[in-house]
Amino acid sequence: MTTHLEFHLPEAPPLQRRDWIAGLEKGLILLQAFDEAWPRMTASQAGQRCGMPRTVARRLLLTLVHLGFVVTDGKLYWLTPRVLRLGQSYLQSARLPRAIQPFLQRVTAATHETATLSVLDGDVVATVARNGPPGMSTGYMLGTRVPAQSTAAGQVLLAHCDDAAIDHWLAGAERPERTPFTVTSKPRLRQHLALIRAQGWAVTEQQLAAGWRDLAVPLRDLRGQVVGSLGVTLPMHGESVTEATTRVLPALQAAARAARQML
Description:
Layout: H1 22-31, H2 43-50, H3 54-67, E1 70-72, E2 77-79, H4 84-93, H5 95-111, E3 115-121, E4 124-131, E5 145-147, H6 152-159, H7 163-172, H8 186-199, E6 202-205, E7 212-220, E8 226-235, H9 241-260
Antiparallel strand pairs: 1-2, 3-4, 3-8, 4-5, 6-7, 7-8
Helix pairs in contact: 1-3, 2-3, 5-9, 6-8
């Protein structure tokens, strides 16, 4: 059974114009404009990135400075750790990451690997829960966001979207080539997603980073809808893909089956 999981946030109910706060929307857009390529910006640069006049961007930035989410030296602006409160609020309030944590622990106990729960957000997958052996720092950290096409977790979620959503993604999504092994061809991606949907799991090798392998399975609720993916990321040395799949996949599948009763 496929899901109508969207490549963007689920469609919200219609909003009456009188209830729409344009300033809030612009402020959130501006916060998301900061990234690895643009860690510090002038008001003009922020406005250009967000498609708004410099004066509007400056007033928003100064408001965010007042609230403690941004700091400035008088010319450049950059984010403060207070922004992490927004993501922490999700992790503390969302039911799914808390419900899945015991099942991630089962995967770790069975495989001695770091297990993660990922969800689809736009064209990326976000890690919203994780569990790993003491002292091990492999795998994705909480809040990590990576291109969906480049990881097993993302490919599992893409594969279990409905055909119209997959067509929409293939037609418009950017497909960054993170390594020489990243699959970017539309025909190959479509064929690969069809195979994943048929077999019910995914494995990728070096598509996001050299020397690393991902395995993932879909996580379904009681209605059969895909609500996330359970995955493991591990180094490729010392194990063939067949050996790794034989060792890790049964634990992921068992955890996903058991967790379904709780969702």
